[in-house]
């Protein structure tokens, strides 16, 4: 049976056996779910993997079902599995860490023939779990969203956690009322599958609200029988794109500085409608300047500041509407360390796209990994989590 794609045929009579297929019961396992997408599951899994390595000599990882995948060695592999393997060198076959990749037509294919497709999917998940957990002390299982995601093809996160014999933690955006409500709904789905929820983590909380959230969300979760394992403060680095991601988002073309500027972390952008004199107040590393290519005064001011200071004065310049600078100004820009990208759309469309970006950690984001590790290590009760898995 090929590992390149999920098996989609198997005798229907095998279904009942496979849905209760035994998996390795010696390895501790924890299922990480979110209340919705982009709430911090991957960040949590990365940080947990590092933290658990301090307590166990052998830690495994699997994302049984993925919807965002890339091609690796001829296999469709979930991006998060590839990320974690790149960072921590898990030393198991990458296709086992990501056994099933859901493409855009998969659900339609499944609904036409569920009885023949489902058993093969369950079998592939179980076999992959046994491979990644072989001789491991603990395995982290990353879900693909909230507890109900995957129900359309009978493999919700809650049911996968049951099949793999895992206990669950739920990651939610910070707050009090809404997170507790959403965690309660997710717990109900896990309860229905007989999966114990052993804790919750609240993510992206303003630093000045951490103690309030910890106290009152903790009380609300306690009423549900769910321990609050941690409250994670907002980390600007984790939500900031780099210049390469911005260029890709706006479909921009590099004019200067790609080799040294692609990884520049972007914390704010300025649409330069001011005078060149006023612009000096906004020049700083971590800033993108969006300005027309024919604003010679703005461009010359940035060039002059870079030349005088000898330091980095901007993390990038974006030129909208394909308006190119004068040849001489372009020659001067090339002599600076300022990354320059030209885009087809206007300034405000570009700004809107940057504002709406969803930023996911990538293998090349070396500056983020220590931040993530410290975030989980310092703010999550790992000992309590481990005790709950006994």
Describe this structure in words.
With 390 residues, this protein is α/β, with parallel strands linked by helices. It has two domains: 12-236 and 365-388, Rossmann fold (3-Layer(aba) Sandwich); 243-355, 3-Layer(aba) Sandwich (Udp-n-acetylmuramoylalanyl-d-glutamate--2,6- Diaminopimelate Ligase, Chain: A, domain 1). Helix content is 42%, strand content 18%. It has 18 helices and 15 strands. The strands form four sheets. Strands 2-7-1-8-9-10 form a six-stranded parallel sheet, sandwiched between helices. Strands 11-15-14-13-12 form a five-stranded mixed sheet. Strands 3-6 form a two-stranded parallel ribbon. Helix 2 crosses helix 17 (368-379). It is elongated, with a radius of gyration of 24 Å. Residues 1-22 have low confidence and may be disordered.
How much helix is in the residues?
Answer: 40-55%
Beta-strand fraction estimate: 15-25%
- What is the overall pLDDT average? 90
Shape call: elongated
The low-confidence parts are 1-22
What is the CATH topology assignment of the largest domain?
Answer: Rossmann fold
| Largest β sheet strand count, sense and barrel closure | 6 strands, parallel
Structural class: alpha/beta
Radius of gyration: 24 Å
Q: Architecture of the largest domain, according to CATH?
A: 3-Layer(aba) Sandwich
Q: Strand sequence of the main sheet, in spatial order?
A: 2-7-1-8-9-10
* Number of helices in the DSSP assignment: 18
Structural domains: how many: 2
Extended strand count: 15
Q: What's the CATH C level of the largest domain?
A: Alpha Beta
Intertermini distance: 35 Å
What is the assigned CATH homologous superfamily of the largest domain? P-loop containing nucleotide triphosphate hydrolases
